[in-house]
Design a protein that fits this description.
This protein is mostly helical. About 60% of the residues lie in helices and about 5% in strands. A hairpin with a 3-residue loop joins strand 2 (about 70-75) and strand 3 (about 80). The N and C termini lie far apart (about 45 Å).
């Protein structure tokens, strides 16, 4: 039986982590099914315990989106990924959740080709290499737009989404240098994000 201190939202976030949501976007339905697999009594129909209840899964998803907006990156309505803060939340709550959810071994997120490619592009970019040499950022916004794969006049939420996706990938890959670089960009240009 699950301890009452573990909420359905906690289970949902854990399920996202277990499926590799630290490293890539996961479909919310897959996360709901994983939550059901982990704790069927919390995510099943009332009269049919062998059937996952989509309403309970949606409730956990919306609870995570509302209660922990800084832990998740949304990709439309149907995909989620853990932010850097979300990965740290998992680390901070790992023992509590692992013991309650009967998981005694930390599941490492598989490395996705897309995340590796994005980080490789950042580390080979002129502005990153210049920053590593001088510890100074370039001034031209268009150069960052190119790095973040958006337009200089893209909406703030697009810039934020691209930044958080890269931050999450850098943290998952242990790339402290890229994370520091991205954090400095965000700190120097808060109006973009």
């Amino acid at each position: 039986m699950i301890a009452e201190a573990i909420t359905n939202t906690d289970i949902y976030l854990w399920a996202l982590f277990e499926l590799g949501g630290s490293d890539r976007f996961m479909d919310v339905e897959d996360v709901m099914l994983e939550a059901f697999r982990l704790v069927p009594e919390r995510f099943c129909w009332r009269t049919k315990p062998d059937i996952p209840d989509k309403l309970k899964g949606n409730s956990a998803l919306h609870g995570a989106d509302a209660a922990f907006p800084k832990l998740l990156i949304k990709n439309g309505q149907s995909q989620r990924r853990l932010t850097l803060e979300g990965q740290k939340w998992i680390e901070d709550n790992f023992d509590r959740l692992a013991s309650a959810l009967r998981g005694d071994v930390k599941v490492e997120a598989p490395k996705s080709r897309r995340s590796s490619r994005l980080l490789s592009e950042v580390s080979r970019s002129d502005i990153f290499m210049s920053w590593t040499d001088t510890d100074a950022l370039v001034a031209e916004k268009w150069r960052y737009a190119d790095l973040f794969r958006c337009s200089p006049d893209s909406a703030q939420h697009i810039w934020k989404h691209r930044l958080e996706t890269l931050r999450s990938a850098a943290y998952a890959a242990g790339r402290e240098d890229i994370l520091k670089f991205l954090d400095q960009i965000a700190g120097d240009h808060p109006d973009w994000f």
